[in-house]
Amino acid sequence: MKNFLFLFTALTIFSSVACFSQVNRQSENRPFMLKGQVVDGETNMPIPKVNVEILGGQYTTTNLSGRFSISAKIGDELIIKSDDFVTVYYTITKNDFITVRVEKAKGETEPVVAKSPKNTMQAGFKVYLDSARFFLKKDAQKSIEYVTRALEPGQNKTISKKENGQAFETLGDINLFWNQPDLAIDNYKRSLQNTLNTEVSIKLAKAFAQNKNYQESITTLQNLSKGNLSAYQRVEVYESLGDTYKAIGDGVKSVFNYQKALDVAKENQITPKITNLNSKIGEAYAQSGALNEAEEYFDNSLKLAKRENKQRAVSEKNKVADFYNQNREYDKEIQLREETLEELNTMGKGTTVEDEALTPQRQNYKIANAFVAQEKYKQAIPYLEKSIAEADKKEDLIVQKDATRKLSEIYRDIGEYDKATESYQRYVEVVDELYVKKEQEISQAARFTKEITLKQNRIASLENDRKLNESRYKLAFENQELIERNSQIQKWVIISLAIIVLLLVFAAYTQYKNVKQQKFANNLLALKSLRSQMNPHFIFNALNSVNSFIAVNDERAANKYLTDFSLLMRSVLENSEEDFIPLEKEIELLELYVKLEHFRFKDKFDYKFSVDEAINLNEFVIPPMLLQPYVENAVWHGLRYKEEKGLLEIGFKKIDAKTVKITIQDDGIGRTKSKEFKTENQKKQKSKGMGNTQKRIAILNQMYKDKVDVTVENVFENSEGTRVELILKKD
User: Fold this and answer.
1) Does residue 328 register a pLDDT over 60?
2) Fewer CB within 10 Å, N or C, the chain?
3) Could you tell me which residues the TPR repeats occupy (predicted)?
4) What CATH number belongs to 31-102?
């Protein structure tokens, strides 16, 4: 426990130091009034009424001279936005007057309007559009798909200006609901280009405000207020103006427009709007700091909301409770939230509430916060536990995270460190889970945005497609024959090109195959040529041995040697036409050859064969007489000149299932001394056997991908003895 207290104290001190450092940094980076100007990049002329915003902070607009001033800090991101040019993002690096040059946005293409007479497809268009509206708040992609079907061109299908405008208005509604105001602006503009509609203009103004194009929103609404509007439309215009001024922090103009909307709503008995506007006026006053006026309007909105329905009443109580929290009237806040909780429970599970704040877990959490603000920690704990339980039940990780952390902090403040630690551990687990969930949501949101944008582009292109298709349908009968003829020509051209391509591919493949076969045949011919050179060389050396026996009148030895030699020659001739023979046969030939050489030089060396029993000799193949020249070199150039008796060792060892190592080792005089014993005539002659063998190995490796690998090295440090190692691979 003492260790925990020590650790907790250290963490508290560290947190205090970190907070102190942060305060110092904040004091060093104090806000200042940034001044600047927005000008056209081509004409260098100032641009008035441009939206200027600090990301997450202040907002203003340029004056008639294109100038602005705004409170900012070093490192803030300045956003210069207008519907007339491309949005500019500018990072503030120093307190200097800045000039921002902007580029004009690309102009909108003229809408394509069908001019054909009325048709029988209007019912189908209406069904598709109704389906799109039905799925608007449920499935954005399905909703857009229905709009696409409504706009798709077809034979005997035309779409009027009005229908075209309705379709793009529906698209704008989809985009606005799914928080894509930039796309909504584009679609509402397309709708208005087809038919002027006050409702669509109001929606456009709302989309401008949601996209933070506040100046465009204000201009649009002010122009609408000067026209002929119904009572409800006039309320909406003034209410939207109030919303926009509230968003940019202009409380006076916000309240003024809300009040005008409220007067029209009262005059025409538009009850839902009266409730909403009282609430919004209260919020505007609260934002401006006029708390008494705000409380008066909030009281009105509460009374009016109770007359409508429970869901509206609950929503209004939540807003007023937030106001009481802002005003530090925590007892009133707690009372309202308790009532909200009771009404949420009585509403039942079947009722859907779109506001995320109107959930039991969020309300319990806010009640706990109100108690904590009054330092009533014991009263706050039960509400936090309820909030955590509800959040866990409804998989609301955000509330669960906040409530768990708050509970840990309370336990820490009241000295219950074990519970504080336990709650903090649960908080860390929830944060990890929330991080994974957020990553998934970000990925899904990116994919969703991409898919919606693709569908949007598809719909935008339908206007042009429809005009082209309508022209095609009008000329269909006149051009039918030409189209069919062109189609036939295209088919023949495609077939001809396909045949030509196939012939070229076949010719190239045949050529490649012939070259490959010719190369293989040339290699085989070279191997046969080298093999044919090996046989006379071997026979010549063998006959020299017989001649040496006859020279010393040893007829019995000569006869015996000739008998063994004839057996060897018969085997050699039998295998002379074979490219490869089993390793077993090669070993038999080698043993017979070594026996003959030992018969002649038995006083000079002994020999020893060792064959690994694990080798399946019939599975490995080797070119005939490949090993004989290495053995011949060992005898004739190494062991023959040795004064004492030498030893020739020939071994076959399995490395793995596909590889065998062949070792030919002698303890003769070595390659260096052997050169000294050569006569001048021998030095002039090149070794036929070894040269041919090296060529054979090179050709084999080229044909069969490194089938044989040969290394030759000295056995002893004094350069005596020779070891030849051949690595033979299975095909």
Assistant:
1) yes
2) N
3) 235-268, 275-308, 401-434
4) 2.60.40.1120
